[in-house]
Specification:
By secondary structure, the chain is of the alpha+beta class. Helices cover 24% and strands 26% of the residues. It has seven helices and 14 strands. The strands form four sheets. The protein has a six-stranded mixed beta sheet, with helices on both faces. The chain has a four-stranded mixed beta sheet with strand order 1-2-5-6. It has a two-stranded antiparallel sheet with strand order 7-8. Helix 2 crosses helix 3. The longest helix is centred in the C-terminal third of the chain and has 21 residues.
Length: 358
Amino acid sequence: MARMRLRDLGITIGTLPTGPHNAITDVPGVWVGHSTVIHDEPQVVRTGITVIVPREEAIREDFAFAGFHSFNGCGEITGVPWLEESGMLSSPIALTNTNHVGLVRDGLSQYARVKYQGRGFWLSVVAETWDGWLNDPGAYHLTHQHVFEAMAAARSGPVAEGNVGGGTGMICHDFKGGIGTASRLVDSESGQYTVGVLVQTNYGERRQLRVDGVPVGREIGPERVPSPWQQPPLSSSIIVVIATDAPLLPMQCRRLAQRATVGLARCGSVGQNTSGDFFVAFATGNHIPVSAGEPVALKMIPNHHLNPFFEAVPEAVEESILNALTAADTMTGFQGHVAYALPLDELQQVMARYRPRP
């Protein structure tokens, strides 16, 4: 059965409507680009870079308010001290593997120097999850050129999911994982806005996996689809990026980032000890020019109008994770290790048993 998105399988998460592409790029001005690196010689490489670019790259001179939440801190993300100090995002957000965080950060700085002669502020946010089961972690194959490729590929519209970009070598709930995305339209008392989410999934045990509340991981156990691991591994990580065009202030962005925990829990995560679960939310509804020479006029949605956003974030996070699982295909990688895809026909059968249609 061909890989496809969750809704193409007849499975719907939540009740809120999606944007036209059901992707983070439904938020106006948000682009996504991937650089995917798959080689077998001279080393086995299954890795890459994904970039989320706000404001069609104008983010370097027109900052967006942002917030951060660490559900469990066993991981690395650069640029967060300044993001939390200032409440602002001033760069693209990049996702990659553990061993290349520094290189990707430096590559984004190099990109800014080459393309924009260093104009604007560029303290980059780069996050990681570990792909060392399918990818040779000692190969160090990524270069600044791959950062440039991901930035050049960044665009609006549909987003490639599964075994792409930073998600190329990732594993989720003992199935092949990777990149996933989703969006929701929010009708609040302050107006209609879009909430978009993109995830890099690399966490969780098989027995914990749930799809819309159904214990799929227990139903499709290792006797049906082999686990990729030769022995139980340390748990790994997930990165969640949330975008909205609403005029939110930094503390409100942080509140949105915290709600990603709800969507993650619905899929079966408990934030295990060695899992790096980092969530970043940014809002483009205000403009903060780097060249501002006088007080900047701001807008703010009242806090008591935020409940629809708090509903949208968990729905979009949950669906993004599941889209990563349904899009990702079986992959053989480093030392012959195999991560098997979630079988979509069996997923449909399990869902039908628990949720029979009238």
